């Protein structure tokens, strides 16, 4: 019985000692001063120096001093909430290093495209469709999409085209930017200036890619690179073009679906491909 009481008293004393020691250490740590900030960027797609400059700019606007302050006076949760409120960050975690420095771990948003609206607005979009403020402090080199506000509902369709083109080694080098001219008029702006490509809607990617390459390899070198201002591959198995000089008579059958102004129907894609195969086979 006395052994049991002794063990119980000993356990209580030890627990009390641990609690007092923990409280003492906690108070001592709280009085320690923060010597600086350890900023860590995880999974970064933005140039590191650019992102660090952006984070430091936001910390400068925080309104509370961090460096040189007692650790106990720094509210880690409040700082996390402050930085997480900016759309540029996927997540933010704040803690203290063993050397008392404030560690801020940031996972930046991975933007897929930068959108320019017709009202001077500009923003990034990530793979989930989340909008990210286009802050100069967080510049990201991604494809550009021109999307008038009235066509913003077509941005998901444009993203499908942008992903397809970006993953294609033949199309990607040809493209400078993208534009939305209507729900069924996704426009490719080539690096080669002077014309645009109307891709139509976000369907039949491989077929339309073949049509674009056919136009570039078989039509434009023959007709002249400055002959047309628009090359459309939106119609199945056809390449349709709009002449730059509207005073010149068109050739071939007119193509008019009631909405578009494309004028001259060029040779069918299927016919050109068949002809090329025949020539290659002798």
Description:
With 282 residues, the chain is an alpha/beta fold. The protein has helices at residues 2-31, 48-60, 76-84, 155-167, 205-223, 269-280, and strands at 37-41, 89-96, 102-108, 111-116, 122-126, 131-133, 144-146, 175-182, 185-190, 196-200, 228-232, 240-243, 264-265. The strands form 2 sheets. It has a 10-stranded mixed β-sheet with strand order 6-5-4-7-8-9-10-11-12-13, covered by helices on one side. Strands 1-3-2 form a 3-stranded mixed β-sheet, covered by helices on one side. Residues 248-267 and 272-282 have low confidence and may be disordered.
Distinctive features:
disordered C terminus, alpha/beta, 10-stranded mixed beta sheet, 282 residues, 3-stranded mixed beta sheet, single chain
Q: Can you lay out the helices and strands and say which pair or pack?
A:
Elements: H1 2-31, E1 37-41, H2 48-60, H3 76-84, E2 89-96, E3 102-108, E4 111-116, E5 122-126, E6 131-133, E7 144-146, H4 155-167, E8 175-182, E9 185-190, E10 196-200, H5 205-223, E11 228-232, E12 240-243, E13 264-265, H6 269-280
Parallel strand pairs: 1-3, 4-7, 7-8, 10-11
Antiparallel strand pairs: 2-3, 4-5, 5-6, 8-9, 9-10, 11-12, 12-13
